[in-house]
Amino acid sequence: MRPAHVALAVLVAAVWGVNFTVIEIGLDHFPPLLFSALRFLAAALPAVFLVGRPKVAWRWILAVGLVLGVAKFGLLFIGMDAGMPAGLSSLVLQIQAVFTALIAFAALGERPTRLALTGMVIALSGIAVAAVDEGTTGPLGAFALVVLAAVCWGASNVLTRKASPPDALNFMVWVSTVPVLPLLALSLLWEGPSRDLDALRSLDWQGAGTIAYVAWVTTVFGFGAWGWLLHRHPASTVAPFSLLVPVFGMSSAALFLGEPVTGLRWCAAVLLVGGVALTSLRSFTGARWWPLRRDPLPPRGGERVRSGGSWSDAEVRG
User: Fold this and answer.
1) Cβ pair 226, 238 in contact under 8 A
2) Is 306 in contact with 235 (CB distance < 8 Å)?
3) Beta strand pairing call for 292-294 and 305-307
């Protein structure tokens, strides 16, 4: 990769990592389900009028929109609102790689290697260490909600792998149209219309800024840049940069929110990131157990291949 492309990949990882700190700030302004609905509304409009028609069947857009947008982000935002720290959330969500492999095995018969299974065990041990750390400082219920969010993210990765969208940004923008109404309905039922109206009436520049960041910077810029990189480089070259997301997530939370980073949390980070790296090692070396799709625009001197669903493996890292 050219130095400018490396810098762009690191910038995307930083954007996705800092996103957790921005979510934490946004939750001071909005109820969690309303905040998530506004995030997807802003991500979808006006981008949906600019990216063209959907390039995959609607059933995949609806399925990923409900599982990723409603379930994953709903649980994540509720968990963080209930007390799960932003930095720890950015770390714990990386266990989605393990759940992706397990769900792909159960649903698609895609068998992980022994090395990947070893990585899963190491990553799960990191989750256990993180749970012990959180149990001494915060609510375990909120921790469990973020783990459930990672499960939903893994399921959405498998659905995206089946959909095989040719254009990641187009797919993500159309997916963003799906969760808006369900999340608004859940917000009205769960959080109440009076709380929602109070949040909207007291909207200030900081609250609006958090919506703009999580929608336009994280989603539109982040996925647009990530897709641009995947069109020019193999997934095995681009994907490892996603492991920087929890580094930026924990660092930004410590810097801007004053979240402590304990010894147990560092231990959990090493185990989780190392385990996820082993679990995903085959995709990093170009021998991923998911089928590869030919890129219609091969570079000079040969033909390039990239994974059909690899963008979602590092999705939203927020």
Assistant:
1) yes
2) yes
3) antiparallel
- The yes-or-no verdict on residue 215 having pLDDT over 90 is yes
- Predicted TM-score (pTM) of the model is 0.84
- Per the prediction, the chain carries an average pLDDT of 85
Residue 306 clears pLDDT 50, i.e. is over it: no
String of DSSP letters for 89-104: HHHHGGGHHHHHHHHH
DSSP 8-state symbol, 112: P
pLDDT tens, position by position, 179-208: 999 999 999 999 999 999 999 999 999 999
Query: Three-state DSSP class for 113?
Result: coil
Separation between Cα atoms, residue 178 and residue 215, nearest integer Å: 14
- DSSP state string for 164-198: --S-HHHHHHHHHHSSHHHHHHHHHHHT-HHHHHH
Among candidate residues 78, 34, 62, the one with its CA nearest the CA of residue 176: 62
Is-contact 63 161, C-beta < 8 A? no
- Going by C-beta distance under 8 Å and a sequence separation of 6 or more, which residues neighbour residue 80? 20, 23, 24, 27, 32, 86, 89, 142, 146
- The sign of the CA dihedral 120, 124, 129, 131 is positive
Rounded to whole angstroms, the Cα distance separating 52 from 167 reads 10
Show the 3-state SS of 242-272: HHHHHHHHHHHHHHHCCCCCCHHHHHHHHHH
AA letter at 97: A
Are the C-beta atoms of residues 215 and 39 closer than 8 Å to each other? yes
